Amino acid sequence: MKVSFIGLGVMGTGMAFNLAKGEKEGEYDYLVCDANPNALEQFKAQEIKTTTNVMDTADSDYVFLCLPDLEIVKSVVLGENGLLKYMEPGQKIVDFSTISYLGAIEIAETCKENGIEYMDCPISGHPRTTVDGTLSIMCGGNEELFNKIKPMLDRMGKQILYMGEIGAGQLTKMINNCVLNICCASFSELLPVGVKLGLDPEKLGDVLMTATGSSFASKTLIPKILEGNFEHSFSLERAYKDMESMNEVLMKYQIPLPTLSGTMQTYQLALQNGHGDYYKHAMIRYFEDMLGVEVRKKNIEEAQLVK
Questions:
Q1: Which residue ranges does the record assign to the 3-hydroxyisobutyrate dehydrogenase-like NAD-binding domain (predicted)?
Q2: Are 75 and 41 in contact (CB under 8 A)?
């Protein structure tokens, strides 16, 4: 059996290394692929087979993808020189990429027409959890296929969930991301109001990280706000695109969600004011500028602020 992994970015690298353990244990032949030769060097150093040519993976029984967006996934799978033109009926594609619900369904239907099974299995976690093999993986597609690949998924994740038919994994991830985005928008708007009216930013931040208004978002991002740290590998602009994907579903099924719509407007304000390349909590800077305050620790050095 041959297994391949395409996409060795921030999240894919750790996952690909964990999946390589199966070859060391004699379970399958293994190949990793990325268009960037530099991404392959650390795999070569561990004597893992590598390639920059996607076509070298087309004879794999299982092809795992971890790619940046829907456009790239479509190009790799459905494109003029995509995998489908070279794969044979019975082969499987397992997609860890975060793409849209409707996009996943479209890809799966095209794969099915060509005798290829496709599963959408988006991931949730951080780069360190990819290395530790403790990701959450939400899977949509054929349940029998899920059961077959689960031992491989267990090498990469701690929480492995079968969510339902094709698209169910992406829908779950979209809902999770939208909840996170709503939480982030709420304290980004309200923290500057408290500081404007005289509250101590650190004490207010402590309350929002520990009291009934706390969330994973507040516990993770408010410390970064107080330090003036807005850098992150996942940008505010990309977070907005997650909500755009959710909005496509809402429009298709005529479902009104006013809280999500309001959150999208908050993100739009931040994007229009040049904060799209920073992480999502950078939207607080729009409200800081509007109110003429900064939500920072006392005596923080100017050099720490990312302007």
A1: 167-286
A2: no
